[in-house]
Amino acid sequence: MSTQVHASVDEATVRQISEELGEPDWLLQTRLDALAALEELDVPDVIQTPGRKWTNLEELDYESLVDPLDAAEDKDQLGPEEAEVLPFAEAVEKHGDLLEERFGSVVDPQTNYLTALSTALFTTGTVIYVPEGVDAEDVTIRTTMNSRSLFNYTLVVAEESASVTILERQETGELEAPRASGRASGDEPRADVDGNRYYSGITEVAAAENSYVQFGNLQELDETTYTYSLREADIDTYASVNWIECNIGSHLTKSSVESHLNGDSSESKIVGAFYGHDDQHFDIDARVWHNAEHTTADLVTRGVIDDEARSVYEGVQDVGADAWDTSSYQRENTLMLSDESEADASPQLIINNHDTEASHSATVGQVNQEDLFYMESRGVGEHLAKNMLVEGFYVPVLEEIEVEELRDDLRKRIRDRLSSRE
């Protein structure tokens, strides 16, 4: 492949990270295996048409973006007493057996080049453990990235009949000065560093029988940052996992959310929202695999792009041969506010048995002129009318968000961006 970040990230680097985090041998070996696999792995698949890739990940200069020994961040990890919300290093010490069983059980560390890179180099993370029968609300993880690059890992384990709602968010802070030894000190700003940053986030959700997980994410990194995130869930019998994936920030975002309906009567919703302006680029994937009977999935994504922003959406509903009595629905709508913006969508159905109800749709268009005329004819100015229509466009997403903080913050980010158009 054309990007060879592993030329500057060697085994000594990986061993140093693992040693400083006090990790067991099995986790160090997982890191080393991921490092070795970089030689053979490709970057994530992207949609392409003859002569054109809709998102070109191979051209990113990962070697200049990735600086794992200078990782620095501020992180808040909050949750109710009934659940355990632990920094990754603390979870390794307290729940070593659980981590050995679950780490990499949902997201294969060697899925692609970027997952392997993240597995080899992650320095921060959170483990959320919800015991059997426990209802845990308002789990919050806030990460402020203060370094050139940051690799983050999140593991959620919901035991039988457990319930949890989670808000994870990322933002960009000041670059911090590195210590001479390599790791960031955090004592002073690193004002002399120019250029771009790289953030990688891997999330695994293991939802046991009859459990419920809502995982909401708000990505608002600054527009010097390139972002890769992969979130996957293993969903057992009668369990439900609902994703809320909101992308507002970063220069280029590659975001994938995937649900594996592995238990009978399991369910999943994947709800997405994005808003791009300037020359931001969003590549959004929503995928669900129906692997068992009586499973249900609902995929809803809504995005707005302005200026010279670009969006790419791929939605996949894969119904297996044994997934009888399946219901699967997908809708993606993109609203374009400028003639220079560009949007593409590729919804896909893969049906392998006949006992299925499934549909998909995708639309790309501008603000409805009839609606705009109707509002203007009743005394609403054109600019205000257009902003009101854009806010209303997001309502189907906002209605799905259970966490009030995420719902309010997403609405505020939308309004702030609309105000910046004035």
What distance lies between the first and last C-alpha atoms, to the nearest angstrom?
Answer: 44 Å
Number of helices: 10
How many strands, what sense, and barrel or not for the largest sheet?
9 strands, mixed
The number of domains: 1
**What does the radius of gyration come to?**
21 Å
Q: Can you list the strand order of the major beta sheet?
A: 3-6-8-12-14-16-18-20-22
- Indicate the percent of residues in helices: 10-25%
- Structure classification: alpha/beta
List the helices and strands and how they pair.
Blueprint: H1 11-20, H2 25-37, E1 48-49, E2 52-53, H3 62-65, E3 73-78, E4 84-87, H4 88-94, H5 96-102, H6 113-121, E5 124-130, E6 135-145, E7 149-158, E8 163-172, E9 176-178, E10 184-189, E11 197-207, E12 212-220, E13 225-235, E14 240-247, E15 252-261, E16 267-276, E17 281-290, E18 296-305, E19 310-319, E20 326-336, E21 342-351, E22 356-366, H7 369-377, H8 382-393, H9 395-398, H10 404-419
Parallel strand pairs: 5-7, 6-8, 7-11, 8-12, 11-13, 12-14, 13-15, 14-16, 15-17, 16-18, 17-19, 18-20, 19-21, 20-22
Antiparallel strand pairs: 1-2, 3-6, 4-5, 9-10
Helix pairs in contact: 1-2, 2-6, 7-8
